[in-house]
Design goal:
binds flavin-adenine dinucleotide, 6-stranded mixed β-sheet, FAD/NAD(P)-binding domain, single chain, 414 residues
């Protein structure tokens, strides 16, 4: 193991904060830089799920046949705004390649391996930070509208079984109501995954970890990082308040990370799947587990005493204005699927998921600078995989064996 280092972490989202905490616990001196503060990006308003059973990447075999349909339905669960279609074409080409059977199988295996670590790493993190009060252990119910949709989902359940994931398949509205009353009877089938965990609020969870980090002597500064420059014995980080040096730098800047990687000469195909939701106030619905309406591309989760309805994946880049019609449509659907839902008084939000073509994160040293480590691109699963990422990055920093093989996540794979 190498001696304690001076480390700069760029990004105070769940990945940056979780990693900064783990590095500090391992004895390193860590400073976090973020232009907006703690949990102000995607980590602010996500659905709050530790979705350990989500091992299937977005690029499934045959998915490209559905692409024209996305383009024609601008408010469907998956869409590409026409203005962005040309820009995203190179990423889509890689996405298409990632859907080939052999690459898909490789991604499922790599995702499953990371999820195994994610589960145990989260438990270690909860224990180390005394965080059980912020955790809900209520499982997840994935709902299917009729026999045909359920049958189409069976290969996915077989895959989960093959990877050791526990689940129960429910085949009547009555069986579903035993776990979650109040769901419209058109949802006749469901899969229940008991090991799914949620946090009471993803922002509060990130702040909780940030407090643990600060208590150990770490620092968090507001500044906008513009470039990273490697030198023989140190790394320079140029930012809005000046220039800092460190022995190692971790790039955990979410959907903006590829811009920083570019300053080192690394071209990483990172896009953003913009997600939308509405958070309803306390009492909106008596939610007892995390609900996934996969066929409609959205979920309903309990956040504090309220309810968050959200999802959608809009491949629209970082600069187009949000289209909150998406939040409206998801909420309307939720109100019809959960007849007792009080859909009034909600707050809308849009967040940038940092997404790679193969749905796997980028974790590893920059090909151009061994002391710059990338930790981004977690797509739909950044909260879920944050504690695991922190452990892997810490092993890379310390030059100790990684808890899992990291080849599948290395930046050079593209
Ligand atoms: C609607 C929605 C629902 C989701 N639900 C879930 C879920 O239930 N479970 C799950 O696991 N995941 C979920 N996700 C995905 C999850 O939110 C992300 O994967 C995760 O938050 C990414 O964390 P991050 O730290 O990489 O990025 P972010 O949280 O976006 O943090 C990146 C930080 O970097 C900072 N930054 C960027 N560039 C710079 C710069 N140049 N200088 C300084 N600072 C910079 C930003 O200000 C930001 O604070 C969801 C996402 C969305 C949009």
């Amino acid at each position: 193991m190498s001696a304690p280092s001076d480390i700069i972490v760029i990004g105070a989202g769940i990945i940056g904060i979780s990693t900064a905490l783990e590095l500090t616990r391992a004895g390193h001196r860590v400073r976090v830089f973020d232009r907006d503060g703690i949990a102000m990006g995607a980590s602010l308003g996500n659905a709050g799920a530790f979705a350990f059973t989500d091992i299937v990447p977005l690029a499934t075999p045959g998915i490209m046949r559905k692409a024209p349909k996305w383009l024609l339905d601008p408010l469907g669960p998956l869409s590409i705004p026409p203005r962005y279609a040309l820009k995203i074409a190179p990423w889509m080409l890689r996405f298409w390649r990632a859907s080939w059977q052999d690459r898909y199988a490789h991604s499922v295996k790599a995702q499953s391996t990371l999820m195994d670590l994610a589960r145990s790493a989260l438990e270690r993190q909860i224990k180390a930070t005394d965080g059980e009060d912020l955790i809900k252990r209520q499982g997840q119910l994935q709902l299917f509208e009729g026999e045909t949709e359920f049958r189409a989902s069976l290969p996915g359940w077989d895959l989960r079984r093959d990877h050791g994931i526990r689940f129960d398949l429910l085949q009547s509205p009555e069986a579903i109501a035993e776990i979650q009353p109040g769901i419209d009877a058109r949802f006749t089938h469901a899969g229940f995954t008991p090991d799914w965990i949620n946090t009471v609020d993803p922002k509060t969870w990130t702040e909780h970890l940030a407090q643990a980090f600060l208590a150990l002597g770490g620092t968090i500064e507001r500044s906008d990082v513009q470039a990273i420059t490697p030198h023989e014995n140190h790394i320079c980080v140029s930012h809005s308040n000046g220039t800092e040096t460190a022995e190692k730098v971790i790039v955990a800047a979410g959907a903006w990370s590829h811009h920083l990687a570019k300053t080192l000469g690394d071209h990483i195909p990172l896009e953003t799947e913009r997600g939308y939701n509405t958070t309803l106030p306390a009492g909106a619905f008596d939610i007892r587990t995390h609900l996934t309406f996969g066929g409609h591309g959205f979920v309903v989760s309990g956040i504090n005493d309220g309810v968050r309805v959200g999802g959608a994946a809009e491949m629209g880049g970082l600069n187009l204005p949000p289209n909150y019609k998406r939040s409206d449509i998801l909420l309307q659907k939720a109100a019809s699927f959960l007849p007792g839902l009080n859909a009034k008084g909600g707050t809308q939000w849009m967040g940038f998921r940092p997404s790679t073509p193969d749905s796997l994160p980028v974790i590893g040293a920059s090909p151009h600078a061994a002391n710059v480590i990338y930790a981004f691109g977690h797509g739909h699963l950044g909260l879920t995989q944050s504690a695991a990422t922190a452990e892997i990055v810490t092993a890379l920093v310390q030059n100790t064996p990684s808890p899992i093989a990291t080849d599948a996540y290395r930046p050079e794979r593209f």
